[in-house]
Amino acid sequence: MLDVKDISFRFTEKPVLDTVSFQAQPGQVVSVIGESGSGKSTLLRAIYGLYDLDRGEIYWKDKKILGPAHNLVPGEPYMKYLAQDFDLMPYVSVRENIGKFLSNFYREEKSERIDELLEMVELEEYADTRPGNLSGGQQQRVALARAVAQQPEILLLDEPFSHIDSFRTHKLRRDLFAFIRKKNITCIIATHDSVDALSHADKTLVMKDGKIIREDDPEQLYQKPGNKYIASLFGEVNEIQANLLFPAENYPDDKKVLVYTHELHTTETSALRVRVKESYFEGSRYLIRALHRGTPLLFEHPSFIAPEETVYLKAEKKIVKERIKN
Ligand SMILES: Nc1ncnc2c1ncn2[C@@H]1O[C@H](COP(=O)(O)OP(=O)(O)OP(=O)(O)O)[C@@H](O)[C@H]1O
User: Fold this and answer.
1) Ligand 1: centre distance to CA 40 (Å)
2) Interval 281-298: pLDDT, tens
3) What's the superkingdom here (predicted)?
4) What kind of architecture, by CATH, is found in domain 237-325?
5) CB of 191 shorter than 6 A to ligand 1
6) Is any atom of ligand 1 closer than 6 Å to the C-beta of 235?
């Protein structure tokens, strides 16, 4: 088990990690989300042993992970860390980069493993190309393949798909996590992307100002975010007076509820009357910006709505009502 126990760390005055604790079971995938600067990368780097902590300890299966003061070469052989810069060897081929940490003793297996990974990251035709001649996204795919090549026990991924085109990330993500699951690799992934955070993780940690403010399974976290900071990590969200959505319930006037843009729908009439200001085309739908008594509100709609048109909105009852209880 990976056991992060009450760790604190600061570069300067302000702590960047502030009494952070969590555990990951072998084979678990844990996503770490939070606004920029909240400490996600620093947490990953601390787990990798790149810092001497001010407080706390990190263990992997009863072995303490040591910082640079005690460990000349940071990082343990059972762990791989994929940083935001890819750290590839520029003058050797993609194939050699992926095989960098694999033993030459079992040549045939090494070659098969590299082929399997080249296929996973869809770079078969670039096997003999040097990374220097690849795009940023292609380099990131090489780095990903190299990070998993050795089948580490722990894989630390920092924004692993940030440079990769969106049409490719979905399949790559599925293939990568299938590989991670098959090999029972424990994976901690820091991400801005709500799909990474929700679709493949067993649990999600939410960071803010160096603290873990919530640890939950992804579905709970999404359905009951508890506050606007957390909900906003998954997309646009409105904070709406509960009795405008459910007048029959007589909620107190100050009771508000978080409602994602796709949870609001137009209806014949309701207590939530808004004036449309703008419709933004988003492919499968429009995002509509409207005003309710001067307060901005966003919702999704299948078609364009003209500016200044008045519409009435309702919310998906069951899910949103459940959220009010919290
Ligand atoms: N080497 C450093 N020296 C001083 N401060 C640093 C250093 N690295 C990071 N920080 C600070 O630590 C805080 C957390 O940074 P970190 O990179 O961990 O955040 P993050 O959540 O990963 O952000 P992002 O999502 O933008 O990558 C930030 O305020 C950052 O400025």
Assistant:
1) 8
2) 999 999 999 999 999 999
3) Bacteria
4) Beta Barrel (2.40)
5) no
6) no
